[in-house]
Design goal:
9 helices; alpha+beta; Trna Endonuclease, Chain: A, domain 1; 8-stranded mixed sheet; 307 residues; 4-stranded mixed sheet; elongated; 24% strand; ph1033 like fold
Length: 307
């Protein structure tokens, strides 16, 4: 393992949704740049046009030629997430072996993602569920820009990160907008905590007219204002990604602002869509008074035929 090189290859899940699942299914990692791009042209609206080779094209194809059997591939996903770690078993190097995972279109008549590197994905140091991926810990060095680049961090370090369930997150199980999460919590507060209710108590109702996006005197805007089973006000702040120290500080400002208006100390809950394990500095900051509860959410969608 020590002689093997570790490479990062970007899985363009944001451009071609479902690409990561195809990588898993076909036991491969892929890059684009169809054969016609090597000949210096591309297609737009089904018509061929000239195109100069981009810097990333040159760097990616050059790095592709250096990857060897027994090297390791790290599948990099958007949002500082990684799919799996895999060891190279075979790879193609010429246009004759172009096998696109993305179907052809007018603008991509030869398809996309067809330069395959066959790998054996590591299923021992990773989630069993293919819908789960791994969130890199806060503070971890960036994986670098571009389609392919060599990584200096050890393979064992990534194996340790991937094997820790606290770093596991859903691939496509996030609300698209923080507002959607706020709306859901306002409608179903009991899902967040047993006993939470969407309407303020009588005393608060005289001063607080809205559950969603309550505006304080300093013009700051709360995501959701609830009350718990003890009639204590609860401010919920929603974030899509892993929480930061700034997020904790923001929620504390809201707690102070609400106390000035109603002369009552509220609870603060920070709901986020990052990994369950948060940065230690953020966790320690959240323990200070007034304490901020940090809760990870997971989105589960189900479907059934109409009748």
């Amino acid at each position: 393992m020590n002689s093997s090189v570790l490479w990062k290859i970007t899985c363009m899940e944001d451009e071609w949704p479902g690409l990561w699942r195809l990588w898993l299914k076909h036991q491969c990692a892929t890059i684009g740049y169809p054969p016609y791009e090597r000949r210096g042209f591309h297609f737009q609206g089904g018509k061929r046009t000239d195109k100069s080779r981009s810097g990333d094209w040159v760097r990616a194809t050059s790095a592709f030629q250096k990857i060897k059997v027994s090297d390791f591939i790290l599948a990099a996903l958007p949002g500082r997430r990684i799919g799996r770690l895999g060891q190279v078993t075979s790879l193609n190097v010429d246009d004759g072996q172009w096998e696109p995972l993305v179907d052809p279109t007018l603008d991509e008549p030869e398809g996309q993602m067809g330069r395959r590197i066959l790998v054996r994905w590591d299923l021992e140091h990773s989630p069993d569920d293919p819908n789960l991926v791994v969130q890199l810990p806060a503070g971890a060095a960036p994986l670098g820009r571009g389609t392919i680049n060599q990584l200096g961090k050890s393979i064992r370090w990534f194996q340790g990160v991937m094997a820790d369930p606290a770093n596991w997150v859903g691939l496509l199980t996030r609300f698209g907008y923080e507002r959607a999460l706020s709306d859901y919590i306002a409608l179903h507060p009991e899902k967040l905590e047993d006993g939470l209710q969407a309407q303020p108590n009588k005393r608060l109702q005289e001063k607080v007219l809205r559950v969603r996006e309550k505006v304080l005197g300093d013009r700051s805007r709360l995501d959701v204002l609830l009350r718990d089973r003890k009639d204590k006000p609860v401010i919920v702040e929603c974030k899509q990604d892993s929480p930061t120290i700034a997020d904790v500080a923001q929620l504390r400002r809201y707690l102070r602002g609400l106390k000035k208006e109603i002369d009552e100390q509220a609870r603060g809950i920070l709901v986020h869509g990052g990994a369950r394990r948060i940065d230690r500095k953020v966790w320690h900051q959240s323990r200070k008074r007034p304490r901020v509860e940090v809760i990870q959410y997971k989105l589960d969608v189900d479907f059934a035929p109409s009748c």
